[in-house]
Amino acid sequence: MSGSDPIADCLAGHLPPRAALARLLLAGENPAAIERRATEYEAVSDAGRELAHIARLNAGPIAQSAAMLQAASLNHSVRQPQPLIAAAFDRASAIAPDAAAALYTLGEEAALTAASTEIIDWLTGQSLIGPGSRVLDLGCGSGRLSAALAGCCHLVVGTDISRGMLRAARARGVPGSAFLQTSGQDLACLRSETFDLILAVDTFPYLMLAQDSAAARHFSEAARLLRPRGALAILNFSYRNDAAADRADAARWCLASGLSLTQPPARFRHWDATAYVARKPPTPSRARDPSQPAARPPAWLKQNTEPNMTEKSKSEEASDLLREAEEARKAGDRDEAEFLTNAAKQLDPETPAKTKSRPTASPEHKA
User: Fold this and answer.
1) Which of 148, 37, 141 has the alpha carbon at shortest distance from 90?
2) Cα–Cα distance between 203 and 222 in angstroms, integer?
3) What single string gives the DSSP state of each residue in 301-332?
4) Residue ranges making up the domain that contains 340
5) I need a labelling partner for 311 at 20 to 30 A (CA). Which of 126, 191, 264, 270 fits?
6) Do 195 and 269 sit in the same domain of this protein?
């Protein structure tokens, strides 16, 4: 993602029109101002005419996307703990789940379908999916891409930290798919060497927004979950506008996880994704451990593991953050303690007062 003006990038052919309009929304511009800006260059070039046409045609979706972003109230420029990111997507999903999952389409049906088709075609062209593929859709959002994958793959498992987005995904009722809530910290509920592809579409930016260690951990988790010759495909790594830093982090975490990194070309008409593919090397196949029972629960789900399916209240999530803040305070990290305490107050303003009188519990959950 470039840090320049979205309109200028669009007119220069570097940014699709809907993606440019989405950037303006993320920058806080209101729908009326966006339409004015988009129509200023209508007579200048074909790109200007297309931008103006799409802005007028999508006045309704733009207004709905603006309302969704206002409800989500998520600052993409500062660090956010996972519970606050999950809560933001819960709020967004109540208004426009598809736009929340793929803002670059503005939630417009034809654009959503075209964007999903583009991604499927790219994955096929990179030999990352096929009829027998088992795919993990990491950060699946509303499940639209999971549904498209299920039509051409053997199995699709979608994970997300937002209960609201998962409700939208499950409501699709797609055969050959399953959806699980995870913490955003790891994928411990899933069995090792299960998937041929782990796909992360606009997911790593939110892992990076939460903390670098969560993003790094998902590389090691991918190495564990992938079958030999499987791949982790990342479309968009971060929102920090630093391609060199993105590649350096991806290369470092691949090296630590035993994965090999490539950056194949990915030119999409509907958005401006940068692609990274981390592949697991071939290893000798291993016979199934006869002590392992048959697939009950499903073969991709660990035995005796509840994959974060219990819905926590905001108060419980805030209490977890306060316990982490107390740990940081005891360790002498005052900045971290203050950050976590403020995050808890945002999640549930009453929780700090309610928990002052409680004895400190040993932390069992990292949100």
Assistant:
1) 141
2) 14
3) B-TT---S-SPPPHHHHHHHHHHHHHHHHHTT
4) 314-355
5) 191
6) yes
Same-domain check for residues 273 and 335: no
Distance of CA 317 to the CA centre of its chain: 20
Domain boundary among 263, 279, 295: 279
Residue 303 CA to residue 180 CA, distance in Å, equals 15
Q: Cα–Cα distance between 171 and 179 in angstroms, integer?
A: 10
- Judgement on whether residues 49 and 154 belong to the same structural domain of the protein: no
Let me know whether 139 and 8 are in one domain.
no
Pairing label, strands 226-235, 260-262: unpaired
> Do 158 and 257 reside in the same domain of the chain?
yes
**Residue 292: what pLDDT?**
46
147 and 43, same domain (yes or no): no
The answer to whether residues 29 and 128 belong to one domain is no
Beta-ladder partners of 190: 301
Count: domains in the chain: 3
pLDDT band at 106 (very low <50, low <70, confident <90, very high): confident
Whole-number average pLDDT of the chain: 83
Cα–Cα distances (Å) from 308 to 179, 217, 365, in that order, read 11, 17, 11
Q: Confirm whether pTM is higher than 0.85.
A: no
